[in-house]
Design a protein that fits this description.
This protein has 261 residues and is an alpha+beta fold. The protein has helices spanning 63-71, 104-118, 171-182, 228-236; strands spanning 32-39, 48-52, 55-62, 78-79, 89-96, 122-137, 145-146, 156-157, 163-169, 187-189, 197-202, 238-254. It contains four helices and twelve strands.
Length: 261
């Protein structure tokens, strides 16, 4: 194979790397400048929430999934909804109407507004005692590293199968991500720990976990990796205990199927 240097006038320019978006103003109240809601293609596996550039995207998300994300609750905290909110899946793509990258709370506000606009969602809040998991301190005490990151910065809590590398995360944020992605019931933080932490949790998932993703992630390659409850105590110095707790519930007063774009 012969290679020759291309002349300057025929060379393709090297694309510039993507420019990181500046954060939205902390007091911004964003919605969608434009958004599409389309039925997910039959047979689609898994579930995705993401933000690339200025576009928020979800894949294979039901109305129930969108409510749990938008309001920070577990699916069991959504009451009085019709069956289709857990069955019909949609792909959402939209651009915020405020410049900059939204923080997690601003992303939730965007989804709340989308649900009100496209799904005609109306609801009210109440308190109910429900089966739950409580995260508490183990007798050994916490085995967590206090984060050196900006405490006002976003946490990083991204699952890689049965592994959770957490950075700049509070215990409330840890409980919230375990509730939204892993566990089959609400999760409450009762550690009493303040501040942000860095840690990595590795475990072998069982059949009850990760149901919100639609598919169970593969188990770690190392067969000696323990189950979740043992791993939390051994690796983090915390405990996750089955209990009952008074938690907020969302009672749906009205919701409609969206008209596809």
């Amino acid at each position: 194979m012969n290679l020759a240097r291309v002349s300057d006038d025929a060379a393709w320019p090297i694309p510039a790397p993507p420019v990181a978006l500046k954060p939205m103003p902390a007091d911004a109240d964003p919605g969608f400048e434009v958004a599409t809601v389309k039925p997910t293609a039959p047979g689609t596996q898994g579930r995705l929430y993401g933000f690339r550039g200025r576009q928020l995207t979800t894949l294979n998300t039901t109305a129930s999934n969108l409510i749990t994300f938008g309001y920070g609750v577990h699916a069991r905290q959504i009451l009085n909804g019709p069956e289709w909110i857990e069955q019909d899946a949609y792909d959402v793509a939209g651009t915020p109407d405020v410049e900059g990258a939204p923080n997690q709370q601003q992303m939730r506000l965007m989804i709340q507004k989308l649900l009100a606009d496209r799904f005609k969602l109306q609801l009210h809040r109440d308190k109910r005692e429900l089966p739950a998991y409580a995260i508490t301190l183990a007798r050994s005490g916490p085995k967590l590293t206090r984060s050196a990151s900006d405490p006002s910065g976003l946490p990083s809590l991204l699952f890689r199968g049965g592994m959770l590398p957490a950075r700049n995360a509070s215990m409330a944020e840890f409980a919230a991500v375990m509730q939204s992605a892993v566990m089959d019931r609400p999760v409450v933080d009762r550690t009493g720990l303040a501040g942000k932490y860095d840690f990595t949790l590795t475990w072998t998932p069982d059949d009850s976990q990760f149901r919100s993703f639609g598919t169970r992630p593969p188990a770690p390659e190392n067969p000696s990796v323990p189950g979740l409850f043992t791993a939390i105590e051994e690796q983090l110095g915390l405990r996750m205990e089955s209990t009952r707790a008074a938690v907020e519930v969302l009672l749906i007063d009205r919701i409609e199927k969206p008209t596809p774009d």
